[in-house]
Amino acid sequence: MAEGARAYSDLFRVGNSITGLVGVGVGALVVNGTNISLNQGVIVVSYGLSVMCFMFGWNAYNDITDIEIDRTNRPGRPLPSGRLNLKEAVNAMRASLVLSVSFLIIGAMNLSDSTTDGEVIVSVAIWVAAVFLLISYEGIRGSKGLKHRGLAGNVAIASAIGMDVIFGASSVSGTTDPKVISLAVIAILLSLARELIKDIEDMEGDIGRNTLPRKIGVDNARSIAWIFTLAAFISLFLPFILEVFPTEHAILVAPGGLLLMLVKSKLFVGEDRAAQSLIKRSLQVSMIGVIASAVIIG
Q1: Closest CA to 83 of 93, 91, 75
Q2: How far apart are CA 31 and CA 173, in angstroms?
Q3: pTM of the predicted model, to two decimals?
Q4: Distance between CA 85 and CA 248 in Å, rounded?
Q5: How confident is the model over 11-60, as pLDDT tens digits?
Q6: What does the alpha-carbon distance between residue 243 and residue 247 come to, in Å, rounded to a whole number?
Q7: N- to C-terminal Cα distance for the chain?
Q8: Secondary structure (3-state) at 273
Q9: 23 and 165 in contact (C-beta within 8 Å)?
Q10: What is the torsion angle, in degrees rounded to the nearest 10, for the CA atoms of residue 105, residue 59, residue 90 and residue 133?
Q11: How many helices (H) and strands (E) does the chain have?
Q12: CA 139 from centre of chain
């Protein structure tokens, strides 16, 4: 039983999927700080669970469609390793997507009790747009998605990640709040750099995928990844310079900026896994800093 649970956990990539739930919470906290009512709390949790469950389903679908690629790149994953069969993976995917829509409906119904219909529509539209980006990335019914089209695929994934925090902000009617927009930009740029580096890592097994590293070469791709990383570094401190957040609070995101500055040396010597790991940690540390600033502001 424990082995079966571990197989589903790996299929869903639970650790990564939980970041979707966390991202929704971050979006709400950045807008309202700790001033969240009970009803808003229900909406935030419902929306977060909706995102998490959708990511469960999307990760399962990714493994289903990439089973041949994963035999080379990720042979330990549940399907290529035989820990789960195709029918089990498909059923798990369908159940996750049903739960995702159910939690979205619960959150939207609660939101409609406390705000205008227009804001509810915007909130649901953000969810639909993020889902559209992920479906466009993966492709459906045998059609090739954006993941086969180089940089466009990286942009789709990064944009969906950025929309996660905006979706969270919509749960407390703060979609256009400058603080959450700043955080979304940071998340998009960091994710874009990381996705590109992951494509470099997976070149050997990316059969049939016309990724950017395959188009322009590894060294050029690393240079572009560094440009995105540098842009993320600038975006990290710009909200403090523009006083979207208090200038003195820039010290709270400084550790995240320091981690980004270490990325170049890793890319220069070809340590791609270490580089993308640094970017991931920088995003996590920076989010903590931004949340802390928002909570202090109140």
Answers
A1: 75
A2: 9
A3: 0.85
A4: 54
A5: 898 888 888 888 899 999 888 877 888 888 999 999 999 999 999 998 88
A6: 6
A7: 46
A8: helix
A9: yes
A10: 60
A11: 14, 0
A12: 18
